[in-house]
Write a structure and sequence with these properties.
alpha+beta, Thaumatin
């Protein structure tokens, strides 16, 4: 990691972690409400192809787009460890979740391609941070998970970090709660833009969620809207809180959540 980016990511991690220290440590049963099964059943037949459509709309581009896939769903997910950072397009994933959720020495994270919802493309276990270079046409989501994500079924719930790279090396990204919420995520473009470009949220909205708030239903959305800025995280489709990275580099930090 280059020194300037190392300092930026470290400072971001410390700052947003500090924001989270004022939140209570809720029980698992309370936290699970915004990540529960009714939304999952509702979306078993849904697709995840919205990332490119929403990001193209935010950029003012034509949404008539054909995705070039990196991975075939007949193939098993590809395990990766931290890769060398040569300064080109890529993604730093930082794990600030203290719970391992059934894994060992960290939390499991998955990169899944849009409309390929049954088998993830890449996966890893992160205790601290890793750098990964997806294929240059990757479009999809980065999510927290556990061993059940290997069962060949759709696992649509959770906080999605949506990412799409262009063949020219640029990239787009956003943090979405349209399919549920399993905890806070902050993403940052690492293209040297003055003042920085960030999306996502760092506060705990799972604690003290009202009764009936489950996995992205209307009660959950009303609760999230009270606490979160729709210009920073996808709460509805009519606002596009998307950022670009001119050099195709992002960092994504996951804070305490549930699986």
């Amino acid at each position: 990691m280059r020194l300037a980016e190392n300092v930026v990511i470290f400072c971001l991690t410390i700052a947003v972690a500090a924001l989270s220290l004022n939140n209570d440590n809720p029980t698992a049963s309370t936290r699970r409400r915004l990540h529960d099964s009714p939304r999952h059943r509702q979306h078993l037949e849904s697709d995840s192809g919205g990332v490119r459509r929403r990001q193209a709309a935010a950029a003012g581009n034509d949404t008539g787009h054909t995705q070039i896939y990196c991975h075939n769903e007949t193939q098993p997910p590809i395990y990766f460890t931290s890769q060398p950072d040569t300064g080109g397009p890529g993604l730093y994933i930082l794990n600030a979740d203290p719970v391992e959720h059934g894994a060992v020495n960290g939390t499991i994270y998955f990169l899944s391609e849009s409309d390929h919802d049954f088998v993830p493309y890449l996966w890893t276990v992160i205790g601290g941070a890793v750098f990964v270079v997806p294929c240059p046409t990757f479009e999809g989501r980065l999510v927290r998970g556990d061993v059940t994500d290997f069962d060949g079924q759709k696992h649509m719930l959770g906080t999605w970090t949506e990412l799409a790279w262009n063949v020219n090396g640029t990239a787009w990204g956003d943090v979405s709660l349209l399919e549920g919420n399993d905890g806070p995520v902050i993403m940052q473009a690492l293209d040297g833009t003055e003042g920085g470009k960030y999306k996502g949220f760092s506060i705990d909205v799972l604690s003290n969620a009202p009764a009936g708030a489950e996995g992205g239903n209307s009660v959950a959305k009303a609760w999230e809207t009270q606490l979160l800025d729709p210009n920073s995280v996808y709460l509805e489709d009519d606002i596009n809180p998307v950022i670009n990275s001119n050099n195709g580099r992002f960092s994504v930090t996951f804070f305490a959540g549930i699986v």
